[in-house]
Amino acid sequence: MNKTVGSTLLVSGTMIGAGMLAMPLTSAGIGFSFTLVLLLALWALLTFTALLFVELYQTAESDAGIGTLAEQYFGKFGRIVATAVLIIFLYALIAAYVSGGGSLLNDFLPESFGNKMSILLFTIIFGSFIVIGTHSVDKINRLLFL
């Protein structure tokens, strides 16, 4: 039960951060109508994808990951492609978070500090939580979510 609460708060915090805070800022230039159409199209695509994963995981082992499923259905090449896509996606995601977090931190530091140093400081601070362990990340996320 306790892990479920932590996982729920982690997903909820990510959705609130990306959907409620960043989305209006990034879509302001293209207008409300086009943004609404894009949101509905993406919602349909993501719902379809989620239903496909539900279908796949009904017959898979409980500890099977995306790479395992890709290998089961597409062979070794499918596993390599799925793993490469996940690595590229996660690299892009962490680059965006580090860049954005460093930029936010730079606003609170003196101007002489510099953007690159702010990014480095952000990475050291939040990277240390990961090095300490996922338990610390869960506790910090719960604190920040409240």
TrEMBL record:
Gene3D superfamilies for the chain: Amino acid/polyamine transporter I
Keyword ATP-binding: no
A GO BP entry: amino acid transmembrane transport
Membrane topology note: Multi-pass membrane protein
Pfam families associated with the record: Trp_Tyr_perm
GO CC, one annotated term: plasma membrane
Name by which UniProt lists this protein: Aromatic amino acid transporter
Organism for this UniProt entry: Rodentibacter pneumotropicus
Gene, per the UniProt record: tyrP_2
